[in-house]
């Protein structure tokens, strides 16, 4: 179980989660370099199916491209090295002040990632589905595959030809 308010590394006060923006495609590098400095980081990633050439491969991709979380204490931690850490672009601020991310959000992300295959258990290739919103609302299609964490590729008959079309996961439901 996750603690509601973690303690700082040296025990001098509570630490909170903050958001770091990484340089483009350098989230792994930022996480590694921050961890090497003793910071606790959380860089949520998911497995994504992709077609490379003629074959399907699974690769890890960030759940939030360009962002990772870091746990810091306002009192105990030296925040200055974060700016110059390789891979880090900036600490995300609002009105020039870092805003903590609620522990419940971090815990919810961790819990969702802990479920094997997350939303992938919803559909299997070949399942009949119905689109629930947008211009194609109430149209039936065939589920083909997931495209990232929140999108699906469906096969639809358009103009007498089967076409692959991408839709948000939230706008598709299985037909039983």
Automatic annotation (TrEMBL):
GO terms for biological process: DNA-templated transcription elongation; transcription antitermination. Keywords: Transcription, Transcription antitermination, Transcription regulation. SMART domains: NGN. Residues 14-113 form the NusG-like N-terminal domain. Pfam families: NusG. GO terms for cellular component: cytosol. Gene3D superfamilies: NusG, N-terminal domain (3.30.70.940). It comes from the Bacteria. The keyword Cytoplasm does not apply. This is Transcriptional activator RfaH. It comes from Isoalcanivorax pacificus W11-5.
